[in-house]
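Per reviewer request, we include the raw input and output of the structure prediction for the construct analysed in the revised manuscript.
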Amino acid sequence: MNIREEVRRMKQAAPEMAASPVEMRNRALERMAAALREHREDILAANAADLAAAESAGVPQAVRKRLRYDDSKMRDSAAGLRELIQLPDPVGKVLLRRELDKGLVLTKVTVPIGVIGVIFEARPDAMVQVASLCIKSGNCAILKGGKETAGTNRVLFSLIHQAAVEAGLPEAALFQAEAHSEIDELLACDDCVDLVIPRGSGKFVRYIMDHTKIPVMGHSSGICHIYVDREADPDKAVPVILDAKTQYPAACNAVETLLIDRGIAESFLPRIVSQLAAAGVAIHGTEEVEILLRRALESGIGAADRDLIGGALQSYDVMQPEDFSREYNDLDLSIRLVDGVREAVEHINRYGSHHTDSILTENAETASYFQQMVDSAGVYWNCSTRFADGYRYGFGAEVGISTGKLHARGPVGLDGLVTYQYRLTGNGDVVGDYAAGRKEFHHRDLPLA
């Protein structure tokens, strides 16, 4: 199959897709939800075969868990589709109406990006999320899922494509790439593809960025931080840190580095390390952190905490400054002590990936400084970094997380899949009249309605 030919067909279909009424796009989403119910057995059988093949190939159990597409995940997919249907149409929003001169009106209107290539990890539910967001936003999409769930993705794409066509959308609006070699073919189509969105490991995303002229929206790593201020509430801080690290450690929004104010380190550090160790988290950090933990062992802490901290120190390795750029995606955590919020901000802006960072404090002024000064897509106060997610933001899922600053930032939902267009309406107007002084601009903003 020639990817370039398919992409050219898609480029020609993009204006028709962009002009499709929202009722038609919502009807496609409704048919997708119905197809999931009607073809449940086919989907589950394909996924069972994928899981069996993954197990035979020695894929780790933690990864196989992400590959599973069962009744629960199918229900979540259907619920996401229903929520997406209820969201307003992102296409055709009037952002500006300005009368440049009498009868000469400029309008700024949201329009789909056009042709988007989305290369995503092996989770089958990503196929449904990505396709549905592209359909709702009026974009044509080339979808490339992971090889580990090729069978499941094939069944899901067939159902999604059929639902879109039956709803009246162009047949060329969606295309599934399956072979790994097709990724490089897709990346070479910079004359037809408007945007590439990669979802996967930092190494994979960096490969995409380095091997195409097509604009890429994504993140190369998820080095998220939590800073525990000296005015933090310890009882509030501990569960937030545990959630951010252990709720789903493989996620890009899981915390990787914990910064603790030296003013509370002697009391808070042993408490949080014992809790993390009890949850199976391996601790890494500076020599200063190790010294404080060994000092805690010599103090009067309880036997249970002593055992947990002692166990953590057995596998403890002292980190060098450059090590703080490390992304674990596992039950590992880096810890460093800092002198206040300014040093915490400096560390985050230097070693972070501009994804999501959080401060734990009861001081509103300190929190405000942190949120203004940390240069990340998501900056939180007294909550887990794991909230950085399109579904949790009410975006109807997401196509990925963007740590860049152009166009879209953070979880990319419908608003991140549209751009805008300037439309000017006149009546035989020419620039020469204004250059010669026969006419003058008066630039008067009009109601958007």
